[in-house]
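Lecture 7 notes: from sequence to structure.
We start with the chain below.
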Amino acid sequence: MQSFITASGQFLPGKPIANDAISAHIGMISERCEREGRLALRQNGIRHRHYAMDSNGESDWTVSHLAAAALDDLLSRAELDRDAIGYLATATTQNDLLVPGLASAVHGLSGLPPLELSSHQSVCASSMMALKGAALQVAAGEHRAALALGAEFASRYFRPGHYIGTETLSADGVLPRDAAFLRWTLSDGAAGVLIEDRPAAHGLSLRIDWIMSRSFADRFAPCMTGGAVKGEDGVIMPWSHSASISEAASRGAFQLRQDMDALHRMLPVWLGEFMRLVDEGRFVPDEIDWFLCHFSAKSLREEMVRLATRAGCMIPEERWFTNLYDKGNVGAASPFLLIDDLLRSQQLRPGQKILCAVPESGQCIMAHALMTVVEREG
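Predicted structure tokens for the same chain:
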């Protein structure tokens, strides 16, 4: 059996926030941090993003509520009722609670009947884990229809109070690069897809040809972290190994961090995985009509283009589809946002090939999915 994406949806909280309004929204730490932020914005190229946290540092949203809102948008454009859904897979970088999983919380808000579910927690590649799980459930005949959702609420970690008074912020108001970059790059929202065992009766669907994900954690230490404390020897420890929660907080354990040097060392590995799939005949770059590559920053895209061109496996840039610059980097929601925006773009035609690529810096994962645009006959 096969599986098909028959509907998609998204939810982005609040109005779009432009670059000159970020500090007023997430809060100003210091003038030095402002200069770091302007540098990060030049690197990531993002012009607008959405925050679930308001300018007072308050919010009525949670990750699960964002996901549920995206689910409502999705099902409002689907051809089946909620009662037909048999499987729910969720993806996020950080859940609202330590326990239980995100899928349970979303299910509780969704109005869906009793069903099977799975919660996937990684970084952006968790979206592909959820997508593959849902697609396999349908293809195996376990369920007639399944949902895969990704949601993020990163801004709750970016308020000044998460930095001021910690060892992370220097006496002259400087944040280290690994803490500053993500504060000006990540944002909030949710998106997802409906997967069925047949194409939609009306309009276009995406046949899922294959999904492949590979971890290279055997070669890399954690690169993007949250809940981590570095010992004097540089070894990363869980926050829970601190003597107290207050000690962990003072050492910056609850901040999101990104090792930028390690990130750039991952680029050749990600490209190597892309080339491996080409060599195995999984796809032919020249035959790809749409390339949905999730990248966290414009500077990383430029480096990826340079490496792929040199390797002779470049998909022409006019075939790249991105929404990063106007919707921001929304982590595990971003691949689903790309799919939803492409489906809404009115640019798809039956027979076109779509390649999704999701590199994850958490501890180096590379995920790909190949899909074909189809239209139901008869």
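Points to note: The CA atoms of residues 42 and 298 lie 8 Å apart. DSSP finds eleven helices and 15 strands in the chain.
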